[in-house]
Amino acid sequence: MLMVRAIIRPEKVDGVLERLMDEGFPAVTKIGVSGRGRQRGIKIGEVTYDEIPKELLMMVVPDGDKDLLIDTVMSAARTRR
């Protein structure tokens, strides 16, 4: 068994959870977190906001399901092409 953790944007959560359910992964723990990714925060004028709201999804799956789970989360949460 493996625990997979994914940090995603809040606006992507519903889509990711729906895709996980469709792929047979109904068990998910969701926790609100804050942080920053590649964007290094958001700068508005002279103020930089470096603690941006995110969601942490945690899933425990059998070893053999790891790749399918990761591919599902990444494709549903993707914001860049």
What does the model show?
This protein has about 80 residues and is α+β, with helices and mostly antiparallel strands. It has a single domain (about 1-75), classed as Alpha-Beta Plaits. The protein is built from two helices and five strands; from the N terminus they run βαββββα. The chain has a three-stranded antiparallel sheet with strand order 1-5-2, with helices on one face. A hairpin with a 2-residue loop joins strand 3 (about 40-45) and strand 4. The chain is elongated, with a radius of gyration of 14 Å.
Topology:
Elements lengths: L1 E7 L4 H10 L6 E7 L6 E3 L2 E3 L2 E10 L4 H12 L4
Antiparallel strand pairs: 1-5, 2-5, 3-4
Strand order of the largest sheet: 1-5-2
Total E-strand runs: 5
Whole-number tally of structural domains: 1
Number of helices: 2
